[in-house]
Automatic annotation (TrEMBL):
InterPro entries noted in UniProt: DUF2134_membrane
Start and end residues of each DUF2134 domain: 39-126
Name of this chain's protein: Pilus assembly protein TadG-related protein
Length: 595
């Protein structure tokens, strides 16, 4: 009995040694798989050639060399992405660009004492996301435009930031991780996705985020000053809450084209762009608002006053995320939209305070020519088509596709009631049979006549597409400028064609029509003299109106385009026939184990 018991104890002891050896071998094999997957994920390519080479080399450096059927190593490339049910899954050979690697290794471990050799296996999945961030159709413009536009978006709130504050905001950037840290008390990415804010709240969040990483901001003091001023504003009117961030598919200020918000942690976004886009979200769908601007830039042309109206039909968004299509679809993961905008500009050119020799008009006769112009623009979009990380950011590349928006430019009676989102895609100018008041005539400061003209519609700006290339620092490649590309600008050409059309309007072709206010003439001069003056007014006024429409209007419209319309549309995230993308440095994610 003692011998039997001793034998059993000996066998058990030897079995424990074999099991322990098997456990250690399994643990070592898992380490090989983990390290090989992490290394391979840093060398991702869609053909999966480089990850295999990298994984094999890494395993060999850790003492594991594949040999026949005894030791095997297999690498599968794919995408680590959302499975549609709130979880994450690895899809083998998924929709490019691929972001994950699965390494599977096997080994044959002999039992020293008990039985034949045992085959063990281990696997590991690692991902390394490439994250880009950009916005389409924005630029920095004059301070008076920024103050007036932001005030209008906030329902008439007076905004008076100086140039230093605006420049500070324009050169300030924050990381998504910093936004998540300050958006809620918990400081989580789920909190970031759940945050809704006013424009003032958004400014406060950005203010706190700017202070967390001063290296991303050129002048922290100037940016802080500007954000404090915006946070202190009290918006008037009805403004919508701003959804700060959302994953793909939901409307928000930051469109995160990632399966998990944490993947976008190191991506940076611009503070000024976030403020303006946030204000547009808050104002979206409201009726048009009027705002005033300093038009001293047009004073060299003629005495001109410009009344502006603005309506945000649908706001823009800023894109942060991975390149390529969403798994199994033809929808881009990371997209930024331009805004849908109604922008009206009613310019008035008057002969008041000019000399008697100007256009041969007597001093007592004043002619004011009006130009009610409005632009209705539908959304354009940009998407992160592909991105490739290299050893340096200068060698890395980003490919961004752009689709410009649809637009109509109309001359005629302004749209006082605005436009709804459903009207934009099929929007057309007023009927050519409708007439608008192109000029008013005063004698001794008393209105005596009006001149009308048919409405004019500039041909629709048709969407065009292009592909822009940037390096990993966000700089354009192959001569593409951030503010100019092959698609070209159309607003100026459209306005010039409008000048030609208006200049051809005459009384003889029923384009212009003078209507005397006979009651005013009779009251001012008496019925007999008033009737005689009517023909004289016609002879004096119509050459002035046709002269302004044919000769003077060109420089005025060019000034409106250069100083007001073009810069305002760009600030609002809209460009007509232009695909300007503001791109930011590419974020090449650190490889992490996910399974």
């Amino acid at each position: 009995m003692i011998a039997v018991i001793g034998l059993l104890v000996a066998v058990a002891a030897l079995g424990v040694l074999d099991v322990a050896n098997l456990y250690l071998a399994k643990r070592s094999l898992q380490n090989v798989a983990d390290l090989a997957a992490l290394a391979a994920a840093q060398q991702m390519d869609d053909p999966c050639s480089q990850p295999l080479v990298t994984a094999s080399a890494n395993a060999a450096s850790n003492g594991f060399v594949a040999s026949g059927t005894t030791r095997t190593l297999a690498v599968t490339c794919g995408r680590w992405d959302s499975n549609g049910n709130g979880g994450m899954t690895f899809v083998s050979n998924g929709t490019p660009p691929l972001n994950g690697v699965q390494v599977s290794v096997t080994n044959t471990v002999p039992y020293f004492f008990l039985g034949p050799a045992h085959r063990i296996a281990a696997s590991a999945t690692a991902k390394a996301s490439v994250i880009g961030s950009f916005q389409v159709g924005t630029s920095l413009a004059q301070v008076n435009l920024l103050n007036g536009m932001l005030g209008a978006l906030l329902g008439g709130t007076q905004v008076q930031l100086d140039a230093a504050s605006w420049n500070g905001l324009a050169n300030a950037n924050v990381k998504v991780a910093d936004l998540a840290a300050v958006a809620t008390a918990a400081g989580t990415y789920d909190g970031l996705l759940a945050t809704q804010a006013t424009v003032g709240d958004l400014a406060t969040i950005l203010l706190n985020a700017v202070g967390r990483d001063g290296a991303l901001t050129a002048d922290v003091s100037a940016a802080t000053s500007g954000l404090k001023a915006v946070a202190a504003l009290v918006p008037q009117g009805t403004l919508k809450p701003i959804q700060l961030a959302a994953l793909s598919g939901s409307p928000a200020l930051l469109q995160l084209g990632v399966a998990n918000a944490e993947y976008a942690a190191d991506a940076s976004v611009n503070v000024l762009q976030m403020l303006i886009a946030g204000a547009e979200i808050a104002a979206a769908g409201n009726a048009p608002v009027t705002f005033n601007l300093d038009t001293t830039g047009l004073s060299g042309v003629l005495p001109v006053s410009v009344a502006l109206t603005l309506q945000v039909i649908s706001p823009p968004s800023i894109a942060v995320g991975e390149p390529g299509y969403i798994e199994g679809t033809s929808t881009w993961r990371t997209q930024a939209q331009t805004a849908q905008i109604l922008l009206g500009a009613n310019a008035t050119i008057s002969t008041t305070n000019t000399t008697t020799s100007w256009l041969g008009i007597p001093y007592v006769l004043d002619v004011s020519v009006q130009l009610p112009l409005y632009v209705v623009a539908a959304q354009g979009q940009a998407w992160l088509q592909s991105a490739q990380c290299a050893a340096s950011k200068a060698a890395s590349t980003q490919t961004i596709g752009v689709q410009t928006g649809l637009a109509n430019i109309c001359i005629g009676t302004p749209l006082a009631n605005g436009v709804s989102a459903t009207d934009v895609s099929g929007f057309s100018c007023s009927s050519t049979n409708a007439r608008w008041s192109v000029a008013s005539v005063s004698l001794l400061n008393t209105p005596i006549a009006t001149v009308s003209a048919p409405s004019v519609g500039v041909p629709v700006v048709n969407p065009s597409s292009a592909t822009l290339m940037f390096d990993g620092n966000g700089n354009p490649i192959n001569g593409n400028s951030v503010n100019s590309n092959a698609l070209g600008a159309v607003l100026d050409n459209s306005l010039q064609s409008t000048v030609t059309t208006l200049g051809q309007l005459t009384e003889s072709n029923n384009g212009l029509k003078l209507t005397l206010l006979s009651g005013a003439l009779d009251l001012l001069l008496g019925s007999v003299i008033g009737g005689a003056v009517g023909g004289l007014v016609d002879g004096l006024v119509m050459p002035v109106v046709t002269g302004v429409l044919g000769n003077t209007l060109g420089p005025v419209l060019k000034g409106l385009d250069d100083i007001i319309l073009g810069p305002l549309l760009q600030l609002l995230g809209v460009q007509l026939g232009v695909a300007t993308v503001t791109d930011y440095p590419l974020t090449c994610g650190v490889a992490t184990l996910v399974q």
